[in-house]
Design a protein that fits this description.
Belongs to the enoyl-CoA hydratase/isomerase family. By secondary structure, the protein is of the alpha/beta class. The chain has eleven helices and nine strands. Helix 3 runs parallel beside helix 4 and helix 3 runs antiparallel to helix 10.
């Protein structure tokens, strides 16, 4: 359990996220993702990083139970710092990052995928930000890198999900494949990149980041300010408590 980094073949480093059963990532896990991706990019032998996950879905976002189990706001601050570090590490990685998504990609998962260079998804993958249903904000910066502006707003306000096939239509998901073929499809693209001259690939990553119209670090940090505000006002606690009550009621019914 945790974050594993290994070299697959020449020039390819694979970073695997594994927090069973649903990949709700604790604070330490976000920082571990950041460290693994950053170190992979610093390795002069690495030309491309594949970011993948075990378990039913790619990412269920932050571990809400961890935040609720600790008094005060420090746990929330730590989680937000961890997400900022992980999202930033993917974007700033010295080489391209390929995100491979199966099942669900929610909350913080959108931050990772939105900042990746290439996204490959299984045909059962869905993407979404349930933040407004949890009394929080954030990662609209990264969702806006996956869909057009008005669709991003509709998805964000309604906390709806979008399928891998729909994202493929918008061009943000490069390939949609059967789940059993996901790792092989990602490695095939990675091998194509790894066959290039690493010096050129690293220069290309810097160049493409340099012409990006949006400063993803500043934009996401701005969003985080409103999450802190909602928590300080007690709004987030109220909504999460309501959500927990509804969840408990549904379990009782079944």
């Amino acid at each position: 359990m945790g974050i594993n980094r290994h070299s697959e073949t020449a020039g390819i480093t694979v970073v695997t996220v594994d927090y069973p059963p649903v990949n709700a990532i604790p604070t330490d896990g976000w920082f571990a993702i950041a460290d693994a991706v950053t170190e992979a990019g610093r390795d002069p032998e690495t030309k491309v990083v594949v970011l993948r996950a075990e378990n039913r879905g790619f990412n269920a976002g932050v571990d809400i139970k961890e935040i609720q189990s600790k008094p005060g706001h420090q746990a929330l601050i730590d989680a937000n710092h961890g997400c900022f570090a992980a999202f930033g590490a993917v974007y700033d990685c010295q080489v391209p990052v390929i995100a491979t998504v199966q099942g669900y990609c929610l909350g913080g998962g959108i931050g990772l995928v939105g900042n990746a260079d290439i996204v490959i998804a299984s045909d059962d993958a869905t993407f979404g930000l349930p933040e407004v249903d949890r009394g929080a904000l954030g990662a609209a910066t990264h969702l806006a890198r996956l869909v057009p502006q008005h669709l991003m707003r509709a998805l964000f306000y309604t906390a709806s999900t979008i399928t891998a096939q729909q994202l493929h239509h918008h061009g943000s998901v490069y390939q949609v494949v059967a789940r059993a073929e996901l790792d092989a499809a990602a490695l095939k693209v990675a091998e194509n990149i790894a066959a290039k001259d690493g010096r050129v690939i690293r220069a290309a990553k810097r160049a493409l980041n340099g012409i990006d119209p949006q400063d993803v670090h500043r934009s996401y940090r701005y969003e985080q300010g409103f999450t802190f505000e909602l928590n300080l006002a007690g709004v987030a606690d109220e909504i999460r408590a309501r959500f927990d009550d509804d969840l408990a009621a549904r379990k009782t019914e079944h």
